[in-house]
Amino acid sequence: MSVVSAREMLLKAHKEGYGIAQININNLEWIKAVLTTVEELKSPVILGVSEGAAKYMGGYRNVMAMVHELDKFYNVTVPVAVHLDHGTYEGSYKALEAGFTSIMFDGSHYPFAENLEKTKEIVAACHAKGVSVEAEVGAIGGEEDGVIGMGEIADPKECAALAATGVDMFAAGIGNIHGKYPANWKGLNFEVLEEVQRVTNGIPLVLHGGTGIPEHMVKKAISLGVSKINVNTELQLAFAAATRKYIEAGKDLEGKGFDPRKLLNPGYEAIKQVIREKILMFGSDNKSI
Ligand code: 13P
Hints:
binds 1,3-dihydroxyacetonephosphate, TIM Barrel, two-stranded antiparallel sheet
């Protein structure tokens, strides 16, 4: 039994200077790929679940049922948090009710006073159940499940006020965006990151949009207080490319190559490889104890 809140694993990562991967999951293959890889590498992990992905997987309860059963099936010993990614106000309560162990309430699109009020309320409800909470100021750019952010740079004063609500981790826009980065991307704004960490009293920070951020920027962000890095698109691209290769090579037409257990296997192996690379890059291998 290894399904836990994200609080302790993030505090340890923050103190010891490494990052924990939030890998967003989409289906059975994704959950299997993450759980087996983190167990091999003895790494803690956070499974990110967007509201759209939860709906696709048959609801929050089914997500929890799948994670709990696979956790037992694979004898997972490393800490695994199940985290709502960019939760709405209503979605946060539904996921909490269904047994999620960590919640991101994304109130970044509300007027700030309302984001603050709602975050406070959600922190109280989650902490009463030992569930960790992430809050966000300054919408992250790009598009994710229909939520479109413009890539704002967070206001440090707002960061300080939101962090004071007692959230366990904090996401601030520092020029990062979801999905692929455009060729003319200016990179992460490390001055803002430093300032955000200063005004938030050393709370573990979260870097969204982990796909395609160069290794040196990831490492610098970790050294400045980032303890959780979210990765989603990169796995989807790897899964699609491996599946395309299999079909283009005509493998689905050979023997029983059309069997979904065969057809989905190259994609499964490809996402395992991306997860492995990210965990080694973030430095959370052998940090499960
Ligand atoms: P990417 O899809 O860019 O990796 O971002 C994931 C993310 O930040 C989830 O919240």
